[in-house]
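User: Sequence recovery, please. Input:
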């Protein structure tokens, strides 16, 4: 602690962003009445490791709670006539998977259609007496499907002789309900290599059990519910296209809900929504276990994920708004023979079924449904889509893009003003120090990605499999996360050394401080500049995300604002006589609590999904280099390391100090 001569009062801490003592002018203005006595005591390495371990443990705990905690399955007795029972739904999954693979044109698909038809007829017989259940076995004529984006961009897919089962549920005594309908869609067909427990027998089973429950509720609805069990999805989304262009009920549909799987089981979350925001807003307020990642929507829109779903047809061809759900656990087995019933986690169907039931019970009685189709086009033109994300799978936050833009512009403006003011007060030394701190961030990225990619190139040469971590994704921590972390440390430390040398030159002009004292101050100030380089990194990403109107830009806000607030509260100072001091671990604790809570699980989920997708590179030997998939995964993991550990790594490079 540093005291004034003749005074026992402590110096007060001023607001964030106006810190002094980081430029030579600040040091030169130090009042001679200050007589600090320096005690060098290294920051406890065990304390830093403890905090790092706490951060890793907290991140993993958030992931487990957010994505792995599933509701208990209910029996038919527990769910009641109006509820959703996973036990009953699993019977449908079992029956469909026992048929084996059932691609388009196979006898097994005909048997699957007959099974679904029989289940639908049973639902019709058991429906509430005031509910009308209409069943249609629809044979689609030949047609041509041409999409303008995503996986099938520029391709024309010709189809014929597709069969679909369509179930429409509506109140008997409300004729206007026929004019407005909500579509719930999934596909019965599978690829030729798998029985399709995840893709998409699990979705078909959820729809059948959901239809049974809805048939007991629909007498109070103002809108119809259409369940489409289509075929031809695996051939290029042809089933959805044939229905939405040929069936007479297509003109009544105001909203489309698509159920998909890119894996098997787990939580089925929303990965695409809109363009009209009403569907996602209603889901957020109604769902018992809301789950959704707008970052998935951004990745799909960018074309980085080479895949597509029926939702693309409903949105692009029919101009509908709605929601797209997907199971993504065990992505590595997607479209493989291992897509089997025994891998379907208990609680997976209950999670999706209860969410959809609550959602439909909220919007089906609403008179607003008819507005969404007409307003959807206007909203798309105005980019008035919604930003959505869940917190711990318990709450979902939804706000419109216009509000997101306003908040982001405000943060960017205030950050720019604070930085400009700070640099003007710091003079040329402050500007150069700022530039060198940015250089440290660049070096951190280069070395982190470089080492991780180097391992990715070497791995196929020494391992029996090009992707040995697919069976156990945790192996990727040792294979890629460890070298990425080491590279980040090396790169940032190199930047620290360069910055330290420059600051030593600046402080060398001070004749009133002992050389040892100057050296200690240089290290302290360099540490602070490295910490603040994290602000610059996330501010840059916020600017990029705002420019392209990416919904996932909220992640940049989360990783910029709380750490900056904590730094301003505990570290920053306005007085020119305040010398730099070691950063407090409390700054990390306060600054990283919110980012970890909001986004740690999502980063882990993203890396896990990317690891599963890499299997596609390995399935077609010769189509891509063996190292390609590893390079993609290594870069994703290295980027995650640099983005999330930039603040905590700044604490590693020097010993701590206290003033007495």
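Assistant: Recovered sequence (660 residues):
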């Amino acid at each position: 602690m540093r005291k004034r001569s003749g005074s026992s009062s402590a110096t007060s801490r001023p607001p964030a962003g106006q810190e002094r003592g980081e430029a030579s002018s600040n040091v030169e203005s130090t009042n001679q009445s200050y007589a600090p006595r320096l005690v060098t005591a290294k920051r406890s390495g065990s304390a830093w490791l403890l905090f790092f371990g706490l951060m890793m443990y907290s991140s993993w705990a958030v992931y487990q709670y957010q994505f792995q905690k599933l509701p208990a399955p209910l029996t038919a007795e527990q769910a009641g006539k109006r509820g959703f029972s996973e036990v009953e739904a699993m019977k449908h999954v079992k029956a469909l998977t026992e048929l084996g693979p059932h691609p388009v044109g196979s006898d097994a698909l005909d048997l699957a259609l007959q099974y679904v038809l029989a289940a639908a007829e049973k639902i019709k017989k058991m429906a509430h007496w005031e509910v009308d259940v209409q069943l249609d076995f629809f044979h689609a004529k030949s047609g041509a499907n041409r999409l303008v984006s995503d996986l099938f961009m520029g391709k024309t897919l010709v189809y014929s002789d597709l069969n679909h089962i369509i179930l429409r549920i509506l109140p008997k005594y409300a004729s206007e309900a026929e004019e407005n309908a909500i579509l719930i869609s999934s596909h019965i067909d599978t690829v030729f290599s798998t029985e399709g427990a995840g893709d998409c027998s699990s979705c078909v089973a959820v729809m059948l059990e959901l239809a049974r429950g809805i048939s007991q509720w629909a007498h109070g609805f103002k809108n119809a519910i259409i369940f489409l069990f289509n075929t031809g999805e695996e051939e290029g989304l042809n089933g959805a296209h044939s229905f939405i262009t040929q069936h007479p009920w297509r003109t009544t549909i105001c909203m489309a809900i698509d159920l998909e799987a890119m894996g098997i089981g787990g939580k089925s979350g929303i990965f695409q929504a809109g363009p009209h925001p009403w569907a996602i807003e209603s889901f957020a307020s109604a769902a018992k276990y809301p789950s959704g990642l707008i970052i998935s929507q951004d990745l799909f829109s960018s074309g980085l994920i080479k895949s597509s779903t029926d939702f693309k047809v409903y949105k692009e061809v029919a101009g509908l708004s709605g929601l797209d759900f997907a199971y993504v656990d065990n992505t590595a087995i997607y479209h493989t023979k291992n897509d089997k019933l025994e891998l379907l986690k208990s609680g997976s169907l209950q999670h999706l079924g209860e969410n959809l039931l609550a959602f439909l019970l909220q919007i089906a009685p609403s008179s607003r449904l008819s507005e969404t189709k007409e307003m959807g086009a206007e909203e798309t033109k105005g980019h008035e889509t919604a930003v959505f994300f869940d917190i711990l799978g318990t709450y979902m936050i939804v706000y419109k893009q216009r509000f997101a833009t306003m908040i982001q512009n405000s943060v960017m403006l205030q950050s720019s003003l604070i930085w400009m003011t700070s640099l003007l007060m710091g003079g040329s030394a402050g500007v150069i120090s700022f530039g060198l701190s940015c250089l440290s961030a660049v070096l951190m990225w280069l070395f982190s990605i470089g080492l991780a990619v180097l391992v990715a190139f070497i791995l196929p040469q020494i391992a029996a499999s090009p992707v040995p971590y697919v069976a156990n994704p945790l192996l990727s921590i040792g294979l890629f996360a460890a070298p990425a972390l080491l590279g980040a440390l090396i790169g940032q430390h190199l930047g620290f050394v360069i910055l330290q040398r420059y600051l030593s030159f600046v402080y060398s002009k001070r004749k009133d401080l002992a050389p040892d004292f100057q050296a200690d101050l240089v290290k302290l100030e360099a540490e602070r500049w490295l910490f603040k380089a994290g602000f610059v990194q996330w501010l840059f990403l916020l600017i990029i995300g705002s420019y392209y109107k990416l919904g996932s830009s909220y992640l940049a806000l989360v990783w910029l604002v709380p750490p900056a607030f904590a730094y301003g509260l505990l570290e920053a100072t306005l007085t020119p006589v305040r010398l730099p001091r070691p950063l407090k671990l409390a700054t990390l604790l306060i600054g990283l609590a919110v980012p970890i809570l909001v986004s740690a699980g999502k980063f882990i989920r993203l890396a896990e999904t990317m690891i599963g997708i890499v299997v596609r590179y390995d399935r077609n030997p010769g189509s891509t280099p063996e190292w390609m998939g590893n390079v993609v995964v290594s870069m994703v993991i290295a980027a995650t390391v640099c983005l999330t550990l930039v603040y905590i790594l700044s604490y590693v490079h020097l010993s701590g100090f206290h003033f007495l």
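The chain has two domains: 76-393, 403-652.
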